[in-house]
Design a protein that fits this description.
The chain is an alpha/beta fold. The protein folds into 2 domains: 200 residues, Glycogen Phosphorylase B (Rossmann fold, 3-Layer(aba) Sandwich); 171 residues, 3-Layer(aba) Sandwich (Rossmann fold). Helix content is 44%, strand content 14%. The chain is built from 14 helices and 12 strands. Strands 2-1-3-4-5-6 form a 6-stranded parallel sheet. It has a 6-stranded parallel sheet with strand order 9-8-7-10-11-12, sandwiched between helices. Strand 5, helix 5 and strand 6 form a beta-alpha-beta unit. Helix 6 crosses helix 9, helix 7 packs across helix 12 and helix 10 crosses helix 13. It starts with a strand and ends with a helix.
């Protein structure tokens, strides 16, 4: 088989979607098939650093929604004239309008979450508020998702929510399936000496235990929970909290100052992969208190590195952990603190690490890519 993967516009800076696309491309090739990536070119927004707001956002829209569809038509005509049998896969649901320019029977799409769509529809539990224009954009994204002959979601939760919003879909002729994300990089328990060297080199004391958070500062990520845990622990644990990802925001800093926790915070901005593996491998526990997710890569990354995981009890976190993590109420810091104290019991900790490692086998790259290829094989037979 030959695949063309439709990736994201570079200036949108969607790092996780870039990794997903590149990983899928690599795995298709390793499976013995041809694959290439098409992305919208930067033309109208040339010279802009990002297209997330202001005039640059609208320039990016011209590149994505005017220029790129024209490019797609030209490229597809070349495939048709060459009688080339090609499957097309849109790697991000936010690009669902491209379904209108690609061969319907040969094109699929991955839906990573429906948070922005549900937020635009007024669902507060999505924690994704929409602007006036954003509501129209999300409505268009959903309308086009309904058209997909081939569609995958990265969790059962996302599939159920999508079907709930798409009354009467999928139709019998549509092939929709849950295919979990696979690991997009190598995560493993880093040897003690190697990880300690990396931590020291980045100014992190190896003598102080720490809780780890990895991710952005979006409100739905609920990272303030880790500081609220320290307050709830009330002296029963003397470690620190490490925030890896985006810089600390003012609200987090103000909370730390108000509760005299400023000396118990470490901030590692955008750690490289090796340092991230070292952090996962060294933490006392990985804390994942999100209010809403589509999948939750950090949960399995932490498990692959041998970290005990304490995650939100809101789906899809329990679905992804499959009973191998401790789950707590993300609105209740004491609940998370209690779960953490439970994880410090050696027997409990050992079990969390062991079962967490087994859980990671479900997200093996080879297993996931086989499911993906099988989906297109079945669609070809069906067609």
């Amino acid at each position: 088989m030959k695949f063309v993967l439709i990736g994201n516009y570079p200036l949108d800076r969607q790092e996780s979607m870039r990794r997903y696309t590149e990983n899928l491309n690599d795995q298709i090739k390793k499976s013995g098939h041809d694959s290439e990536i098409w992305i919208p070119k930067v033309f109208f927004a040339y010279g802009q650093k990002t297209t997330t707001a202001g005039v640059s956002k609208w320039l990016g829209y011209l590149d994505k929604w005017i220029l790129f569809p024209l490019t797609l038509k030209i490229k597809i005509l070349k495939h048709v004239s060459a009688k080339s049998e090609v499957n097309y896969h849109i790697c991000d649901h936010s690009n669902s309008p491209y379904l209108n320019y690609l061969p319907k029977a040969k094109t699929g799409i991955t839906c990573h979450d429906v948070l922005a769509i549900r937020g635009a529809m007024g669902h507060k539990d999505a924690f994704c508020d929409a602007t006036f224009f954003g509501k129209f954009l999300q409505k268009a994204i959903l309308k086009n998702l309904k058209k997909a002959k081939i569609l995958t979601t990265v969790s059962k939760l996302t599939m159920n929510q999508l079907i709930e919003m798409c009354s009467g879909f999928p139709k019998p002729e549509q092939n929709w399936k849950v295919i979990y994300n696979s690991f997009n990089a190598d995560f493993f328990p880093m040897p003690r000496g190697q990880r300690q060297d990396l931590l020291r080199a980045n100014g992190i004391s190896i003598d102080k235990p720490f809780l780890l958070y990895v991710g952005s500062s979006l409100p739905r990520k609920n990272r303030k929970m880790l500081l609220e845990m320290l307050v709830s622990l009330n002296g029963r644990w003397d470690g620190v909290v490490c925030f890896a990802g985006q810089p600390l925001d003012n609200n987090l800093i103000d909370f730390a100052l108000a509760n005299k926790l400023e000396d118990r915070i470490i901030s590692i901005v955008k750690p490289d992969h090796n340092l991230l593996v070292a952090l996962y491998s060294s933490c006392s526990a990985f804390i994942f208190p999100s209010f809403s997710e589509g999948f939750g890569w950090p949960l399995i990354e932490a498990q692959a590195c041998g970290a005990p995981v304490i995650a939100s009890n809101i789906q899809p976190m329990p679905e992804i952990s499959n009973g191998t993590a401790l789950h707590a109420d993300p609105y209740n810091p004491l609940d998370f603190a209690t779960a953490f104290l439970q994880s410090t019991n050696e027997e409990v900790r050992s079990q969390l690490i062991s079962t967490g490692h087994k859980n990671c086998l479900r997200f093996n790259r080879e297993h996931i890519i086989n499911e993906f290829l099988d989906l297109y094989n079945r669609q070809s037979t069906f067609s």
